[in-house]
Write a structure and sequence with these properties.
It is a single chain. The protein is mainly alpha-helical. Helix content is 62%, strand content 0%. The protein contains five helices and no strands. Helix 2 crosses helix 3 and helix 2 (14-21) crosses helix 4 (39-48). The longest helix has 10 residues, at 25-34. 14% of the residues are buried.
């Protein structure tokens, strides 16, 4: 339900979200309807909606811009 709410808040149709995520319309419908999907499908939808936050390394870099980045 949260993914559907987020999609609607961004004024996206299921078809538009599916295209952005590189998924079939059926995959997005199934995920929204019963929450069933592969992990890959879930990650693609979350990425397409812009819901993934920065990585731990990005957070460390933002907190200390002078810190050396690992090679």
């Amino acid at each position: 339900d949260r993914l559907r709410t987020q999609r609607l808040a961004q004024k996206l149709t299921q078809r538009e979200l599916a295209g952005m995520a590189g998924l079939s319309l059926g995959a997005v419908r199934k995920l929204e309807h019963d929450g069933q999907s592969s992990l890959e499908t879930l990650v693609r939808v979350v990425q397409a909606l812009g819901l993934l936050g920065p990585s731990p390394e990005d957070r460390r870099q933002a907190a200390d811009p002078e810190a050396e980045r690992p090679l």
